[in-house]
């Protein structure tokens, strides 16, 4: 086994563009699969709302096209330029988190229980999605090449990062979106872990956070019901299948109907007003029903491959900023996907987090695809990839979409430390030899 893994690693190392190619390919496959599944799961609700059956699919296709444009723009921008605007990006995200709490600007409290959206030109903007990407970019910028053993030193970067992260989590919690707050906290923990903070510190903070979350969920209301439904789903026995457990129970039925090969694309029965949020939170249940076990395994495999090549990109990046950027964005998106899949199959409590790049969404799809464009840009700027393109030319994808050749990293120039000028002791100048000779010659003539 070890020998096979060594050969596989050597094979991948011999192909400098493999990380860039795989990240790009996986993202495009997931985005395409999302359009197909949203089309299948939303047709019935489009007809119910007196719209065309293609209303939601066309909207999703338009959003994905916008996301692919954001992906292309992110590929055009070198990662070091992103670093220069990291602080502005983070400030704009905090401002949006504050604006969404202003009555009359933010919406969603009456519809889904969390005031998390801003309507702009017919699209829903979710500031917490922007903040989750912004904390990755800014965190990678401020924590790169910093000493993780000096967490309390203000100039070291970790203290400002923790303060800003807690501010963002507080603002997201004020929206009532506990699921997004947990997802944001996971991203922050992963950034600190990649920056060198010990597991012990992260474990202690995570323990306090988990205890606080349990207290919030046990305080009553729909969050407490979700916790009870979670234990029902974990043991495969639902008490209230027509009440609080209705959505989870219908998701289980959808997965069970799919069996191994599925009922066929477009043939889901759950989408006929049985499964709530079939195109959003529980779209993985529709995938399992229509495409069967192999369809669900395909989605899980794609996200696992994205995690592998994203972390491999981080390991082979030019510098620590790019490594932190690629690792934090990749793990943040993949962890969100596994949280969504986890609560659909009953391993986690329902949190309302969407399946990235597959669930129907507004600007969340654009933001996610743009963020993955940053990861692909880091992979494209790997030293081996840059050297390969300079010697053999750009790949076909880059030539088709007018992507300029990436520049090689500039070698770091080490300057010698300045030394204090030595104090030279003043010594009187000696008498010139010619002067001594002239004096001797004059004295001889006088003596004669």
TrEMBL record:
It comes from the Bacteria. Residues 410-448 are annotated as: Disordered. GO terms for biological process: cell division; peptidoglycan biosynthetic process; regulation of cell shape. It is a multi-pass membrane protein. It is an enzyme of class 2 (transferase). Peptidoglycan polymerase that is essential for cell division. Residues 412-422 have a biased composition (Basic residues). The keyword Ion transport does not apply. The lineage of its organism: Bacteria, Bacillati, Actinomycetota, Actinomycetes, Mycobacteriales. It comes from Corynebacterium tuscaniense. GO terms for cellular component: cell division site; plasma membrane. Keywords: Cell cycle, Cell division, Cell shape, Glycosyltransferase, Membrane, Peptidoglycan synthesis, Transferase, Transmembrane, Transmembrane helix. This is Probable peptidoglycan glycosyltransferase FtsW. Pathway: Cell wall biogenesis; peptidoglycan biosynthesis. GO terms for molecular function: lipid-linked peptidoglycan transporter activity; peptidoglycan glycosyltransferase activity. Belongs to the SEDS family. FtsW subfamily.
């Amino acid at each position: 086994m070890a020998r096979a893994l060594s050969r596989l690693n050597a094979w991948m190392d011999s192909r400098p563009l493999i990380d860039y190619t795989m990240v790009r390919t996986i993202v495009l496959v997931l985005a395409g699969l999302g359009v197909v599944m949203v089309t299948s799961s939303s047709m019935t609700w489009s007809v119910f709302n007196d719209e065309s059956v293609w209303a939601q699919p066309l909207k999703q296709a338009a959003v994905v096209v916008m996301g692919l444009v954001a992906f292309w723009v992110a590929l055009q921008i070198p990662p070091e330029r992103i670093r220069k605007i990291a602080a502005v990006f983070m400030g704009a995200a905090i401002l949006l988190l504050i604006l969404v709490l202003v009555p009359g600007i933010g919406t969603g409290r009456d519809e889904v229980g969390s005031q998390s959206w801003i309507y702009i030109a017919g699209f829903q903007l979710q500031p917490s999605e922007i903040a989750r990407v912004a904390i990755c970019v800014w965190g990678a910028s401020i924590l790169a090449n910093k000493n993780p053993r000096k967490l309390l030193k203000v100039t070291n970067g970790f203290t400002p990062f923790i303060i800003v992260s807690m501010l963002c989590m507080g603002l997201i919690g004020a929206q009532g979106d506990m699921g997004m707050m947990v997802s944001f906290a996971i991203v922050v923990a992963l950034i600190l872990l990649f920056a060198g903070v010990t597991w012990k510190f992260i474990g202690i903070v995570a323990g306090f956070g988990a205890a606080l979350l349990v207290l919030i969920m046990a305080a009553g209301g729909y969050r407490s019901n979700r916790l009870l439904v979670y234990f029902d789903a974990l043991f495969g026995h639902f008490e209230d299948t027509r009440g609080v457990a209705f959505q989870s129970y219908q998701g289980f039925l959808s997965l069970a109907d799919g069996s191994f090969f599925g009922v066929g694309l477009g043939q889901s029965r759950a989408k006929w007003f049985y499964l709530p949020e079939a195109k959003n939170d529980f779209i993985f249940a529709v995938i399992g029903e229509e495409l069967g076990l192999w369809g669900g395994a395909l989605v899980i495999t794609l996200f696992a491959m994205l995690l592998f090549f994203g972390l491999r990109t981080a390991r082979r990046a030019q510098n620590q900023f790019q490594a932190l950027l690629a690792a934090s964005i990749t793990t943040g998106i993949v962890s969100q996907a596994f949280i969504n899949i986890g609560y659909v199959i009953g391993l986690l409590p329902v949190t309302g987090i969407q399946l990235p790049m597959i669930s129907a969404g507004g600007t969340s799809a654009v933001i996610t695809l743009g963020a993955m464009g940053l990861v692909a840009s880091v992979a494209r700027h790997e030293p081996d990839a840059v050297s390969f393109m300079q010697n053999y030319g750009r790949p076909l994808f880059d030539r088709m979409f007018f992507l300029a050749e990436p520049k090689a990293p500039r070698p770091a120039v080490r300057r010698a430390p300045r030394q204090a000028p030595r104090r030279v002791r003043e010594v009187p100048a000696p008498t010139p030899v010619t002067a001594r000779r002239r004096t001797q010659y004059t004295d001889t003539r006088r003596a004669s």
